[in-house]
């Protein structure tokens, strides 16, 4: 019997707010306000006269205009409607319409959000409760280590953050979405060893063959080690080692914008010996091409999910995705992950 799905109005997937997310790259925020939305919270980012970044709720308390449409004047954020000015703590420090000597009303302030600038990214905490001291933004390894190089790019995807995370941890799709460039359609067997960690899930991937795609022919010289990690709340690490001193690590740092929109920040590090200049030259093209292919399939999925809701049918090859969903739910509740280990085998 064929399943029939009629158009519906499904409940949007929940967003995890008790976490640090990237709002923007540091280089994007210069001397103009920058509007961003993180986990459904509209923000305005700006820098004061010392260059320090701040994040405010994007609404003026006077007449509820978007502050992000304003300007930065002498390190203060100026509303575009009546010129009210706010400092990085959200306090109103100047109202042009007031007579000399009269101070702004005590309640004329804007809610601020915790912000940390780290390794070229601006991280914000979108939850109403303040961040616990033991929860910090994800720190990129090897960022300034000798012999390592890096590059980055970003995109917006019309799909829920959970599905975007799943895509980057999912091996079976690569031969079809990225066929020829990165793997080929279901051509060989793979063993996935899944294991829970304190902050997520680690997957060791052992492939029978790895030299059938264009990238594999260029990079593979001997045995390849491949490991994926999900790091709570929405980061995926993809690590390839091509023998001693040759390694490429990609981080997909996902920020929920709304229930069905995600901003993805891709940060790639590598140490590849004499091949390092070639990796640097090729990354802008190859990295953007792979990301565009992922964005295309995720946009298609997102359109269907928004109309019909989720109706997934999983198989053994989807085990990593199911483990990640369970880990996200458990860690969001503040519970520890139980120690688990499992091996699954399937074709990719």
Summarize this, please?
This protein is an alpha+beta fold and 348 residues long. The protein contains 5 helices and 19 strands. The protein has an 8-stranded antiparallel sheet with strand order 12-18-17-16-15-14-13-19, with helices on one face.
General description of the model:
- With 348 residues, the chain is of the alpha+beta class.
- The protein has 2 domains: 21-124, 3-layer Sandwich (Rieske Iron-sulfur Protein); 149-347, Naphthalene 1,2-dioxygenase Alpha Subunit, Chain A, domain 1 (Alpha-Beta Complex).
- Helices cover 19% and strands 32% of the residues.
- The chain is built from 5 helices and 19 strands.
- The protein has helices spanning 161-169, 174-177, 214-219, 276-308, 319-332; strands at residues 21-25, 34-38, 41-47, 53-57, 71-73, 76-78, 85-86, 92-94, 112-113, 115-118, 121-124, 149-157, 189-197, 200-207, 225-231, 235-241, 247-258, 261-271, 341-347.
- The strands form 4 sheets. The chain has an 8-stranded antiparallel sheet, covered by helices on one side. Strands 2-3-4-9 form a 4-stranded antiparallel sheet, with no helix packed on it. Strands 5-6-7-8 form a 4-stranded antiparallel sheet, with no helix packed on it.
- Strand 7 (85-86) and strand 8 form a beta hairpin.
- The longest helix has 33 residues, at 276-308.
- It is elongated, with a radius of gyration of 23 Å.
Structural key phrases:
single chain, 348 residues, alpha+beta, Rieske Iron-sulfur Protein, Naphthalene 1,2-dioxygenase Alpha Subunit, Chain A, domain 1, 2 domains, eight-stranded antiparallel β-sheet, four-stranded antiparallel β-sheet, 5 helices
């Amino acid at each position: 019997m064929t399943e029939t799905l009629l158009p519906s109005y499904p409940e949007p997937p929940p967003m995890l707010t008790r976490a640090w997310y990237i709002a923007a790259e540091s280089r994007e925020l210069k001397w103009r306000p920058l509007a961003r939305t993180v986990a459904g919270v509209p923000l305005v980012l700006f820098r004061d006269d010392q260059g320090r970044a701040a994040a405010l709720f994007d609404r003026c308390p006077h007449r509820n205009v978007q502050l992000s449409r304003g300007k930065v004047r002498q390190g203060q954020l100026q509303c575009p409607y009546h010129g009210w000015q706010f400092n990085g703590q959200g306090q109103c420090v100047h109202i042009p319409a007031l007579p000399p000597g009269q101070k702004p009303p005590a309640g004329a302030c804007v809610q601020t959000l915790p912000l940390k600038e780290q390794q070229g990214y601006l991280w914000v905490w979108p939850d109403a409760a303040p961040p616990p001291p033991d929860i910090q933004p994800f720190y990129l390894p090897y960022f300034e280590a000798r012999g390592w190089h890096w590059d980055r790019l970003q995109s917006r995807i019309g799909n829920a953050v959970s599905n975007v995370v799943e895509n980057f941890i999912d091996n079976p799709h690569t031969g079809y979405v990225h066929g020829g460039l990165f793997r080929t359609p279901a051509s060989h067997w793979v063993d996935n060893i899944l294991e829970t960690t304190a902050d997520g899930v680690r997957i060791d991937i052992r492939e029978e063959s790895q030299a059938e795609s264009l990238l594999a022919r260029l990079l593979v010289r001997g045995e390849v080690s491949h490991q994926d990690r999900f790091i709570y709340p929405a980061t995926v690490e993809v690590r390839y080692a091509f023998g001693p001193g040759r390694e490429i690590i990609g981080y997909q740092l996902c920020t929920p914008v709304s229930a069905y929109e995600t901003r993805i920040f891709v940060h790639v590090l590598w140490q590849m010996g004499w091949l390092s200049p070639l990796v640097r030259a090729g990354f802008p093209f190859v990295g953007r091409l792979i990301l565009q292919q992922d964005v295309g399939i995720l946009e298609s999925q997102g359109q269907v999910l928004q109309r019909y809701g989720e109706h997934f049918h999983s198989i053994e090859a989807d085990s990593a995705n199911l483990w990640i969903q369970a880990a996200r739910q458990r860690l969001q509740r503040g519970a520890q992950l139980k120690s688990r280990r499992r091996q699954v085998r399937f074709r990719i």
